[in-house]
Design a protein that fits this description.
- By secondary structure, this protein is α+β, with helices and mostly antiparallel strands.
- It is about 25% helix and about 30% strand.
- The protein has a single domain (about 30-130), classed as Alpha-D-phosphohexomutase, C-terminal domain (TATA-Binding Protein), CATH 3.30.310.
- It has helices at about 5-15, 55-65, 120-130, and strands spanning about 30, 35, 45-50, 70-75, 80-85, 90-100, 105-110.
- A hairpin with a 2-residue loop joins β4 (about 70-75) and β5.
- The protein starts with a helix and ends with a helix.
Length: about 140
């Protein structure tokens, strides 16, 4: 797709003002699970089968805290919410992890607040976290 003048103007505006978009209303745990992705174009969600979901979440916390332009927003028992900003335009993505010991899962979701496509950034973020899972 060739960018139009409107797309270019939007990108410049976002770069100048670092528009972060509204916080998604579906963040958090609902019915024992993270929300499904509203669209694969700007969201990624996975469930990792792990022996101890809470310990795995605790092990990933420093990995997430060390990610560039990432800020831990909320932590509660078995849940973590962080935001990551893109370097160029300041787009904000929401990252959530939920330890589900009843099912032996660590659920992970990364979703962009703005835009029609994340160019694979959210899936890459979750793949990086998967690579950091303790053995």
């Amino acid at each position: 797709m060739i960018p139009t003048l409107q797309h270019f103007a939007l990108m410049i505006s976002l770069a100048l003002f670092h528009l972060v978009g509204p916080v998604p209303a579906d963040l958090g745990v609902h019915g024992g699970a993270l929300s499904p992705c509203p669209s694969r174009a700007h969201c990624a969600r996975v469930d990792w089968r792990v022996a101890d979901p809470e310990a795995t979440l605790a092990a990933l916390r420093p990995v997430i805290a060390a990610m560039p332009r990432t800020e831990l927003v909320e932590e509660s028992s078995g849940y973590l919410h962080a935001t990551s900003s893109s370097a160029l335009f300041g787009f904000v993505d929401d990252l959530e992890l939920y330890a589900d010991p009843a099912h032996g899962l660590l659920q992970a979701r990364s979703v962009s607040r703005l835009g029609d496509s994340d160019l694979g950034v959210n899936a890459q973020r979750l793949a990086s976290l998967e690579a950091a899972l303790p053995d």
